[in-house]
Design a protein that fits this description.
alpha/beta; 2 domains; four-stranded antiparallel β-sheet; globular; about 220 residues; Rossmann fold
Length: about 220
């Protein structure tokens, strides 16, 4: 089946793409929504423009749609992007990286129903500990690009999640009652390498923005 991946460059959408490929489906394109609103209800924002580099090393066409990021209104821009992917790339299904967000999953499903497309959520309700184990086992190199929760400070920005850092995350998640997969918006991630990439990406430069307990990392990659 020809699939369009809703792609943010983070661990969830990238792993969803990986599962799509390994299950025998075709990834026809990546669909990225770039929001002007850093507090978007629907879309990942830290270092979102760097998806172009990821798409290049995956050798997959990338369709970008911009949005002002206003709640509910941004869904019209998402629908526009998905409709364009259906027309230009002949997609038959949309794949998301949704893990637990009913808000996101239900709205994407509604758009797919309207456009007569299948909607797959391969990570839905996946156990967070098992999920992280799978990511590391399959060679995903993941860094933190945004934090917004007690226990996750500025020092986490740019941290690569290996087994040692994952154990720290588990301790923090237990202590502060946060979702280990970050489904509550506690953190954002970026994938520097995975089996879908022809080569790994390297960080050339980085800048940190934020205050209090909300921080984000903007990176340049090569």
């Amino acid at each position: 089946m020809k699939c369009g991946i809703l792609f943010s460059g983070g661990k969830d959408s990238t792993y969803a793409a990986y599962l799509t490929k390994t299950s025998g489906n075709e990834i026809s394109c990546l669909i990225t929504i770039i929001s002007e609103n850093p507090e978007s209800y629907m879309f990942h924002t830290p270092s979102i423009s760097k998806v172009e580099k990821q798409a290049k090393v995956m050798n997959i066409p990338l369709l970008i749609q911009e949005t002002k990021g206003q709640k509910e209104e941004e869904l019209k821009d998402l629908e526009k992007a998905i409709k364009k992917a259906k027309t230009e790339f002949g997609i038959e299904a949309v794949v998301t990286g949704a893990v637990a967000s009913v808000y996101q999953a239900s709205r994407i499903q509604k758009i797919c129903d309207k456009l007569d497309l299948e909607c797959f959520n391969p990570l839905w309700q996946k156990d967070p500990k098992e999920y992280w184990d799978e990511l590391l086992k399959n060679g995903f190199e993941i860094i933190i690009t945004g934090v917004s929760a007690d226990g996750l400070g500025e020092e986490w920005l740019g941290q690569k999640i290996d087994k040692r850092m994952l154990n720290k995350l588990k301790e923090i998640a237990q202590k502060f009652k946060i979702h280990l997969s970050f489904e509550g918006g506690e953190a954002e991630t970026f994938v520097l390498n995975c089996p879908l990439f022809s080569r790994g990406l390297k960080i050339k430069d980085k800048k940190i923005f934020g205050k209090n307990n909300s921080w984000r990392l903007e990176i340049e990659v090569i």
